[in-house]
Amino acid sequence: MAIHPQAGIKADPRDLVNIPRLMADYFTIRPDMDNPACHVVFGTSGHRGVSSKSSFNEAHIMAISQAVAEYRLGENIRGPLYIGMDSHALSEAAFVTALEVLAANDVDVIVQSGLSYTPTPVVSHAILSHNRSLSNDDSRRADGIIITPSHNPPEYGGFKYNPPTGGPADTSTTKWIQNRANDLLRNQNKDVKRVVLDAGKKHPRISFVDYIAPYVADLKNIIDMDAIASSGIHLGVNPLGGSTLDFWDAIASHYHLNMTNTQPYLDATFCFMTRDHDGKIRMDCSSPYAMASLIQMKSDFDLAFACDPDGDRHGIVTSSGLMNPNHYLAVMIEYLYTTRDRWPSNLKVGKTLVSSALIDRVAAGIGREVCEVPVGFKWFVDGLFSKSIGFGGEESAGASFLRFDANVWSTDKDGMIPCLLAAEMTAKTGKDPYARHQEHVRKYGEPAYGRIETPADARVRKFLGSLTPDMVQTDTLAGEKITQVLTNAPGNQAPIGGLKICAPSGWFAVRPSGTEDIYKIYAESFKGAEHLAAIQQQAVEIVNDMTKREAL
Fold first, then answer.
1. Catalytic option among 45, 150, 243, 400
2. What pLDDT digit, counting tens, does each position of 172-195 carry?
3. CA 74 → CA 103, 131, 184, 236, 472, distances in Å?
4. What is the pTM of this model?
């Protein structure tokens, strides 16, 4: 993957997104429903788009919000809807649009006091807290919406729906909402209900609450906050201009932490960010290029960390630099399953099929079964909700885990608790996460991991999403006997939407993107960089061979 010459460097002010134009496009551009690029499309979690590209406009949010309101009625969900937004510019506009549609549909909406920003995991935590004493068919159940494009560039907007289980909606739910929204758009939103909100007047369907205090106070039930405070370790945090800003300040104050906020202000252009690997401004807390500013300060702190704009991803910086997300997932798993004494012995470890095999080796070393699922955190929701898995994590730096007492905390990714867990393990053991990873390398081997992205049209992506094991016409991978060819995840037998091939020392997986005109090849080797390159080369050859045969 070519690295942009300005990766890791702040953008020239002349290159920053034009916020007034972005907002004008949101309100004035009407999507052309004869163009598939203008349709509502839910990927692994939600719908994302750009107003200037006719993929995230007022019409889209009106339609999606109306579809959510109708879905709630059909599912007999009549409790409050907890709604949050992140600090992307389009989130502000979409938030108001959604409120006006939901209120017109008689949905009781819960909003952060002061119309401030609310992280994804806080919405999940609020939903689960409300529903804790309710049965799964009680009409008083709550659900939620988060207006966010996650870590995507400043010009993006996004919309996620979380049902009463608290986490990302499953495929059947998002498909229903997506299809209904597109039907509404084709009919020019004539069936959308909407009221005009007056900022100076209260609406009976909209209530304001403090999301911050309950979440912060509850942290002591999942993280040993006293141990962090009493250790006095100096922590650095960078909210990356996102929705966790007020939460980190409240956490530091409430628990008397020695914490410095290195980015204590917001700007919708995200002008303080350094460019990512491809030269774009992207608030990816797992990227060493996007995280360059915090990495440069690594010697100023005992430990530092960051979250993306909606707070569902984590980035951990030690004295050795930014940790690879896969490596930290394995560190968290070993630490949690060996220190949480009230966790049952049969709790499984949740991982996605493109996460590192180091996790499998660590889990085997502590005697825990792995539940491997397709890509997307939605596949962990049932396991966390039912408390059959203690931890769910994906290679893109998203994770959540159970409380000390093995009850559910969140069923969506929570970027703040992995950061605080890094502080806990450092405070209580004297070893930071990187030192613990080095112990894993000595014990289990050192993984080399990589990802390749290749342009692909809709026909190729559709084909790659429907592969079968018999299409693979080789029995070796980079010189080793193939042990598994998977098109269904072994943990839940759900379709991968692609293919994974495994050998004793390495593996690769191919998946078409659900939102971009590309496919991705993930690969890993425990024999070093040369072996990884051999796996990647053969993976490309296998994919090319299958697509050529399909074309014939």
1. 150
2. 999 999 999 999 999 999 999 999
3. 17, 19, 17, 46, 43
4. 0.96
